[in-house]
């Protein structure tokens, strides 16, 4: 019972703090894009959450962190789309590197999947939600490819650096 | 770093209870996807804007609207030129530039995007974050989700300030004359500091009794004066929008 209680409190704290890290990464470094959104370092934090804490924490932290950043950053219309896209991005990355997080091949596959999910997800969902038209949404694709690819690499470097500095990192994964 | 968009005020919309505000914001967003008539699209675009100006003033409205403006301008410039099927409205040298269908498409997308953005901003500008979470609890948002949401909102400004301090101290380590800051060491230091807080935060949640008793009751909020009138006003607006769709 005490163990369950401890686990519950630890999970809530882990989710809240990792989502806040994602939101800060999204809000702190923001470059406005020509069609109204912005590019940021959020994918680095999303990738880090997936590598460090696994697919499920990654999904909640990545989704909630980016959605909260949109809500408090003045872009509330993108919050639901960001939640889905970045949540699924972290979920898939976490699932891919779950068995062998040190495998270079798996890391490359995870990075490619992240790029496809972010660029394709925003393209399809903004069009499906009727917030823009396909030909407009296509203009965002190059920026999203760059953002997610750079983010996946920085996320990996960040994971290695944090793991060296904080040895108990792997104990937090569930 | 400030994570609240709330603007203090005593307007009639500020005095609305958070529950009808949350409910009708959601209804308005759903209706944004079914409205197709010209009157409906005009209402969709201008109603939240008018409410926002009446509640927080032109300056705050402009701050929110300015963020949306580049996207709206791009949509106006590009969509009519790309969607050129249908009845021509403007032709130059025998080439159709704008059609009725293209214009109708751009009006639909602009109204939807503008209406949804303004409706959500209106909610965030006239309600404190903790009130919104408390309102969601009244709609049976599970306690762990509400707790995590309010913790996220408290940690964002804290970690934002922490990052500013780390970045400023890291920039002092650069050679004289160089500007900026070493990004990777700065974000690594931020993440390490944040993750070190997790076990302590969990321990403090336990000390405050998290998980020690099953929470079965959802938040009971007092009903303010005019509570049912607020629901009625929201319902009338939603009904009008539905009828003119």
In terms of topology, how is this protein built?
The complex is a heterodimer of chains A (174) and B (245).
Chain A: H1 2-28, E1 30-32, E2 38-40, H2 42-72, H3 79-97, H4 104-128, H5 134-137, H6 141-165
Antiparallel strand pairs in A: 1-2
Helix pairs in contact in A: 1-2, 2-3, 2-6, 3-4, 4-6
Chain B: H1 18-32, H2 38-82, E1 88-92, E2 95-99, H3 100-126, H4 129-138, H5 143-171, H6 183-207, H7 227-243
Antiparallel strand pairs in B: 1-2
Please characterize this protein's 3D structure.
The complex is a heterodimer of chains A (174) and B (245). Helices cover 75% and strands 3% of the residues of chain A. By secondary structure, chain A is mainly alpha-helical. Chain A has a two-stranded antiparallel sheet with strand order 1-2. In chain A, helix 1 crosses helix 2 and helix 4 (104-128) packs across helix 6. The two termini of chain A are 18 Å apart. The relative contact order of chain A is 0.16. Chain B has helices spanning 18-32, 38-82, 100-126, 129-138, 143-171, 183-207, 227-243; strands spanning 88-92, 95-99. Chain B is built from seven helices and two strands. By secondary structure, chain B is mostly helical. The mean pLDDT of chain B is 85. The radius of gyration of chain B is 24 Å and the shape is flat. In chain B, helix 1 packs antiparallel against helix 3 (100-126), helix 2 (38-82) packs across helix 3 and helix 4 (129-138) packs antiparallel against helix 5. The chains are: A mainly alpha (174), B mainly alpha (245). At the A-B interface, helix 1, helix 2 and helix 6 of A face helix 2, helix 3, helix 5 and helix 6 of B.
